[in-house]
Design goal:
This protein has 487 residues and is mainly α. It contains 20 helices and three strands. The chain has a three-stranded mixed sheet. Strand 2 (226-229) and strand 3 form a beta hairpin. GO terms for molecular function: metal ion binding; metallocarboxypeptidase activity.
């Protein structure tokens, strides 16, 4: 009976959490600009309610009395025990203050980004950093503060393990970049692409990759994201008149996240197992949808035809040229627009800087200079303005410290999954060339997505690949990138 009582309580908490998430979706899509201060109060109030439920003493009693009878029940209890242990370390007032300040910070960041004014945003970011340091110290309980923050997004992961991953990735990525950039690159797209037609094709791409619009919707936002789980999973995208790829590949990326949530076993709805197990695994889905599938030679051949239908002659002669244009290496500033070869270098920069911010080795007042210096050292040129540099991402303004590294971890996981997918699915390129992703997305649904939080992060990847956890390394990703780009 104690297990049933615990799960009934948790389901109600999960439902309230979904409502809180919907407040965030609304804020980034359709909320009136003048509602920001009130929305911050609403976020703070919801955070207090959720914190109170998450630290309810009855949870400890139910956990002590509950005896799991199935592997699924054992996994549910594992998640609940972990969440309870973390929640009880953070004071309720601190949780509410973080929710309120980060909600306000998001609006201040958006205005500062438009104005390229980091100095104007710095005081707000300093508040966020101070609060997150306090939270990290509470969670760490004498241990490593940054490791405690990572655990929010990738349970069991450490900064040391991630540093080793970046150290293993960096030499190969830099060597490949230098090799490819030494050759002539195809020109980018030119001209103007109608927004309505971009969004129409974006919606088609979402459905081609399996997104169920009867349980979701697509809106516009400054920074694309996916929100929700189960029967209400929403995504956003963005448009630029001179760059339809920004729209199309943002959509495919977010669809990878959304399909993960939509395809979790319905039996886990509104329980701890009813969401993606970690952000690294989540990113493995968005990145494999976007890159290994969406930017493949086979699929871009089909997309070329779709773009000709939507925009007429848009200045690209044929499918082979289009494939090269889609995958061209570029000297841009924006992480979300970076090519596959350089993307992880963008993430490594953020990983190192936020560790310094959280440790106190770097002050917010010095962050823009530190960013620009590091960017120039890594890429050979400096950001021309703040919106192309330190203000480009929403993650730090909303307090997501410890999140960035999961993007690269997701790339590593995606490399392993892609290798296994190619091994298991014959004729994949023929299907992709016809705009048919069902074999690939079906394989991911069966082997990764349906499990939700049943397994631990590396465990679900290893099971899908048929390997041990020790064999989940960066090697398949580097091999894929070298095969694709060296030629």
């Amino acid at each position: 009976m104690s297990y049933a009582e615990l799960m009934a309580f948790v389901r109600e908490t999960q439902a309230l959490g979904q409502i809180a998430g919907r407040l965030g979706w609304d804020q980034e899509t359709v909320m009136p600009k003048g509602a920001g201060a009130q929305r911050a109060e609403e976020h703070g109030a919801m955070a207090k309610v959720l914190h109170a439920r998450g630290t309810d003493p009855r949870i400890a009693e139910w956990l002590d009395a509950a005896t799991p009878e199935t592997p699924e029940q054992a996994a549910q209890l594992r998640h609940i025990k972990r969440s309870y242990a973390r929640a009880t370390k953070v004071p309720a007032d601190l949780a509410a203050q973080i929710a309120k300040v980060t909600s306000l910070s998001q609006g201040v960041w958006a205005e500062a980004r438009v104005a390229d004014d980091f100095a104007g945003f710095a005081p707000t970011l300093s508040q966020v950093v101070a609060l997150k340091r306090e939270e990290g110290a509470a969670l760490a309980d004498g241990g490593d503060v940054y490791d405690a923050m990572l655990d929010d997004y990738e349970p069991g992961m450490t900064a040391a393990e991630l540093s080793a991953m970046f150290d293993a990735l960096r030499p190969g990525l830099v060597a490949l970049r230098d090799k490819v950039m030494g050759r002539a690159q195809p020109p980018g797209l030119r001209g103007s692409f109608d927004e309505a037609r971009q969004l129409e094709l974006s919606s088609k791409l979402a459905q081609v990759f399996g997104y169920d619009l009867s349980r979701g919707r697509i809106d516009k936002a400054v920074h694309p994201f996916s929100s929700g789980s189960g029967q209400d999973v929403r995504i956003t995208t963005r448009t630029a008149a001179d760059d339809p790829f920004n729209c199309f590949y943002s959509t495919i990326h977010e669809v990878g996240h959304a399909c993960y949530e939509q395809n979790i076993d319905d039996a886990y709805l509104l329980t701890p197992l009813g969401a993606g197990v970690s952000m690294g695994v989540h990113e493995s889905q968005s990145r494999i949808y976007e890159n290994q599938l969406g930017r493949s030679r086979a699929f871009t051949g089909w997309l070329f035809g779709q773009m000709r239908d939507a925009f007429g002659d848009f200045g690209v002669a044929d499918e082979d040229t289009f494939f090269r244009v889609v995958n061209r290496l570029n000297t841009g500033f924006i992480r979300t627009e970076a090519d596959e070869v350089q993307y992880n270098l963008h993430v490594a920069l953020r990983f190192d800087l936020e560790r310094q911010l959280m440790s106190g080795a770097l002050d917010v007042a010095d962050l823009e200079d530190a960013w620009n210096s590091r960017f120039e050292a890594d890429f050979g040129y400096a950001p021309d303005r703040a919106s192309n540099g330190v203000l480009q991402d929403v993650h730090w303004p909303v307090g997501l410290f410890g999140y960035f590294a999961t993007y690269s971890l997701g790339n590593v996981y995606a490399g392993c999954l892609h290798e296994a997918l190619r091994r298991d699915v014959t004729g994949l390129d023929d299907m992709l060339a016809n705009g048919d992703t069902s074999a690939a997305t079906g394989w991911l649904r069966r082997n990764v997505q349906c499990h939700g939080g049943l397994y631990r992060p590396k465990e679900v990847i290893a099971k899908a690949c048929g390997t041990s956890e020790a064999e989940i390394t960066e090697a398949p990703l580097l091999a894929y990138l070298n095969e694709k780009f060296a030629s």
